[in-house]
Structures are given as C-alpha cells and as structure tokens.
Design goal:
Layout lengths: L29 E7 L5 E7 L2 E7 L11
Antiparallel strand pairs: 1-2, 2-3
C-alpha cells in the first residue's frame, strides 16, 4: 500500500490489503518495443498475453519504462 515495488514473484494469498485492491482489474505484461516516432515522441508497446497496448508520449513521461 506504500507504493514500493514488491520483491516477491509469487501471489500472496494471505488476504493482506494491497495496492491492487484499489482497482477493478490488474494485468501483468512485458514491454517488447520502445521506439521514437516521427513527431519526437516515444512509443512503448507491451503485450499482456496477446492483448497489445501502445503508449505514446513525450520521452520524459515514459523514462521509467524499460524493455523486459
């Protein structure tokens, strides 16, 4: 709940409240492409088990996202 990254790679079944409890749906995916667009923006493409998502923004907004 404090926003810190978890260092555990397994699902916690203890019932303890987590940040995910604030949302209706959560997914885990992989970033597989990071490229510059023609308009000097950055495009990041991630896959969530076949469902694809593309984010485009100014590079400073996506600086913390890296390839998996």
């Amino acid at each position: 709940m404090d926003g810190k990254e978890d260092d555990v790679d397994t699902y916690d079944q203890s019932g303890k409240e987590t940040l995910l409890d604030k949302y209706d749906y959560g997914m885990c995916g992989k970033v597989f492409r990071y490229e510059r667009t023609k308009t000097d923006k950055v495009a990041i493409i991630a896959s969530f088990g076949g469902l694809l998502m593309m984010l485009q923004s100014h590079p400073s907004h996506l600086v913390n996202i890296s390839l998996d």
